[in-house]
Amino acid sequence: MADYKSDIQIAQETPMLPILQIANKLGLSEDQIEYYGKYKAKVDPKLLNQTDATPGKLILVTAINPTAAGEGKTTVTVGLGDALSALGEKTVIALREPSLGPVFGIKGGAAGGGYAQVVPMEDINLHFTGDMHAIGAANNLLAAMIDNHIQQGNALDIDVKNITWKRCVDMNDRQLRFVVDGLGGKANGVPREDGFDITVASEIMAVLCLSSDLMDLKRRLKSIVIGYNRAGDPVTAGDLNAQGAMTALLKDAIKPNLVQTLEHTPAFIHGGPFANIAHGCNSVTATRMALHFGDWAVTEAGFGGDLGAEKFLDIKCRAAGLKPSAVVIVATVRALKSHGGVSKENLGKENLEALEKGLPNLYKHIENMRDNFKLPCVVAINRFPTDSQKELELIREKCAALQVPVALCEVWGKGSKGGLALAKEVMRVADENNGFTFTYPDDYSLQDKIHAIATKIYGADGVEYTAAAKKQLEKLEALGFSKLPVCMAKTQYSLSDNPKLLGRPQGFSITVRSVKVSAGAGFVVALTGDIMTMPGLPKVPSAEKIDVDENGVISGLF
């Protein structure tokens, strides 16, 4: 189309307000924000204890299992926030920070799209305020202190074959998944097998996102288990006296970042754990600030409801005492047809049979949010130009049979005007009483928690464990970690642990191949299938299309 504009063109052509004006909308003065240029600022979490406010209503945006067709969950989140603002509601959005890995890889950024974006989108998608780098530095400081301790005599008797802490870098770099370091002779360290995670999978990221304040951050950092000594006992960051220096590196990173949407709705963007290999939610402090300063707080959790939303509800809400008022489940005709077996090149053609075949994926996510977590939900159909009226009506008809409200969402092309119907439905259902509950109680064993998630949320028949995973579970139970919630690392593309099983698979089991404790974050991670904590770049990475001119104007960024 001749008048088509890319996301970055729209963002660059839309004037922003000075960040102080956005802060003023929240009742904040210039003395209460820390400038990061004209259009970004940090806000100290201490303000939550210094100003009185009645907490707003929390709206969680999730989606069906993602496909190559795209769902636009962040776009809907931003558009919904703008639509609530357009209806006269005091609204604040809370989102995750993008990782450089997907930005330069294949998935793209996380600033929304079209006329439903947070800005400055180039800054947000690139270095932003430096939080990711601070997290990486704290992670790698701990790694350096571990190896230095071993080099200097190993007073803690750390077992070099049982170090669980990895280095990290915020980039997709498969070459770093497995490395051997400390080579070159005695003066250059102790040779050992090592590896890198992407920064957003680091436990430091989870710790930052789940900490309530700076001292809670330091306490959690101290509890991090970095490996085991030769007697089999855990060794912590506190044993290495690393928590103070790590906290110093993170003292500014713990402060949420304030920006704005294209329509000037305030947005806190803070923390960025992936939802397939981490817990997938923005920080507790950012969400609390959105609730504190707004009558409505609109937030999203990564990937589909089986990953980000489950972790938001079972981990984040449990840890922070949060209770959502409603859930929005984003779906597209294109993605549902993909779940129904249609190839990407044919998704633009009307295909009611494939759409109906893919709809059970949506049904399962509705079932999870409404029947498992006991939360009212609205289905948001993120509309594409190729969607036929018959296809849209079919989704409405099938959801009506389940007594689930549906709203057409056109915020990508129309901004807030395209989200008014969704906003009104959300406001209506958010007034309903809900009996929010978790998937499992605290006193379940770790195996029972994993089984509950697999059977209730994924629809699996059961769980199988490798011999290594069984031993790890036994050890963690014996060490007293059984009361912690479970963070499942699983493919985002399927309800199962097999990315090729689309729709709503039946008759499958989940295979847990490894289990580890993230004691600082406060959960146990169960790795399933072939999930990797360090992604790789695709054949043609997005990095090849990104450029900058002599004036510093960036192009090719979506």
Descriptors for this entry?
34% helix; four-stranded mixed sheet; globular; 558 residues; alpha/beta; single chain
User: Could you tell me how far the N terminus lies from the C terminus, measured between alpha carbons in angstroms?
Assistant: 16 Å
- Determine the mean pLDDT: 94
Rounded to the nearest angstrom, the radius of gyration is 23 Å
The percent of residues in helical segments reads 25-40%
The largest sheet, given as strand count, sense and whether it forms a barrel, is: 12 strands, mixed
Number of strands: 25
Based on secondary structure, the structural category is alpha/beta
Poorly predicted tracts of residues:
none
The 3D shape can be described as globular
Strand content: 15-25%
The total count of helices amounts to 18
Could you explain the architecture of this structure?
- This protein has 558 residues and is α/β, with parallel strands linked by helices.
- Helix content is 34%, strand content 19%.
- It contains 18 helices and 25 strands.
- Helix 6 runs antiparallel to helix 9 (243-250) and helix 13 (352-372) runs parallel beside helix 14.
- The two termini are 16 Å apart.
- The model has no long low-confidence stretch (mean pLDDT 94).
